[in-house]
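Subject: sequence -> structure tokens, single chain

Hey, anyone have a minute? Need the predicted structure for the following. Not urgent.
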Amino acid sequence: MKSSKIIKRLYEDYSKKFLKKILFAAFFSIMVAGSTSAIAWLLDPAIKKIFIDKDENLIFLIPTFIIITFATKGISLYLAKSTMIKVGEEIKKILQFDMVSSLINADTKLIDGKHSGKFISNLTFDVTHITNMLSDAILALFKDSLTLIGLLIVMFYQNWKLSLISIVMIPLASIAAKTLGKRISKVATEAQERSGFLNSYLIELFKNHKLIKIFQKEDYEIQRSDKHLEILKDKNAKIRTVYVRVSPIMETFTGVMIAILIFYSGKLIINDEIDINNFFSFLAAMMLAYQPVRSLATINMAVNQGLSAARRILPIIDNENEVKDNQNSTDLKINNADIKFENVSFKYVEQNDVVLEKVNLDIKGGKMSALVGHSGSGKSTILNLIPRFYNIKSGDIKIDHQSIYNSKLSSLRRHISLVSQDTTLFDDTIRNNIAYAKMDATDAEIKEAAKLSYCEEFIKDLPNKYDTLIGENGIRLSGGEKQRISIARAMLKKSPIILLDEATSSLDSETEEKIQNAISILTKNKTTIVIAHRLSTILNSEKIFVVEKGKILASGNHEELLKISNQYKSFYEKQIRKG
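Reply:
Had a minute. Here:
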């Protein structure tokens, strides 16, 4: 995307709504520029009237004006900066909100395709650079350009010949800034990438801390973290080094200018073309102009950083979902909740191999059906296609003879509950985790769901009962307790379709029995599709589908499959021997 289009987009979507505050800051920037110029100009009458003419009447008046001028500059600078700080934080919040909203609504494919640490880096590192460009750079552009103009007026007023010599510094500084700006844009992109890698690594580090300890890999991970931090340190050091390169360039320019001006002004004074008071006023204006020239030189770098960050942020905000309602979508009406797959084929974008190939399923409403097969056979993919976490490549999926692709996503997902072995809970209270399925649920409804899912057995022993905080992803609870909360959540939703993805795996026999009882209550008279490694949990299913390499090899009840499917018979006999 071109820089001009990015700037126009950022202005229209983010800065424009704060135009009054920006103009308010611009007004006080004019005050800063005027007072700074007045400081330089006041040296002329101060030197002439007080030190040369020895006018006693002005010995108090001129210092008073100088105090007022400095105070005006300080107050105006404070008001301009504080206003733009607030504008910057408002813009930052809106940018972050837009990005988070986009990610929350994004297709599962987008979230799966990028590590969460990279998104966090975008949300913090990149948004900060955009905010700096839209607030700090705007203020600097107003304040410093106006200050420079005011000081140039003072300089030309005092002596136009010296002014022409000194303004050579401005284009030289601009050329240097443009060159450094290109360099900093490249380094900033590299630093963002390294920041994303570090965030991703830290998330993995905290997530797998038990694994690190059991395999005694603390030293190894410390070395890895040191490498990540070392690379990020080098990238950030490069950015700051490029910034400070302005200093020696500007110092050299200024030194050369002052040397030339002193040499040339000496001749002008000797020839009576300029008075000493005019020269000192001119020199003060030129020295004061050094700061805005330097600031304007670094604006180019801040803008380049902001534009580079915007090129990474805006595509996320503008992300167009593939999984969405079409123009003719209607509400899904549930009668029996029959589910039918018709020649469904599917593959993940990043994979060449087809995951599902012309799959046909006929699942009877109000009954339990099961999917069995080796890991990677496509069982979980089938489950994920029903709530449209992904779009199929070809074919159709129907619920009660209505294509889910012609049904509104909200109405489709309203009728579906998912309970997975990878239980997902929030770092919140037990009450709020259960109520997540129905935010307006009464206390009685929450407790009823907890009772039916056997959650009350452990909730009563917790210090704050239902108001106990369970930690990140329920870290303070056992696997079985987390699973029961997940089932309670599904119970509260009361949806007619239940998807169970190996919900009883990795549990002891006593806990598994309780969860099986809870699942029996949850799935009673509901259309249920279950994936289970333990065939003992699905023997009573109305129909069992044997899945292998993305195809349905056989289907029937347990007794039928033992006769017609060698794969199913093999699964069953292996588990009998184990059990």
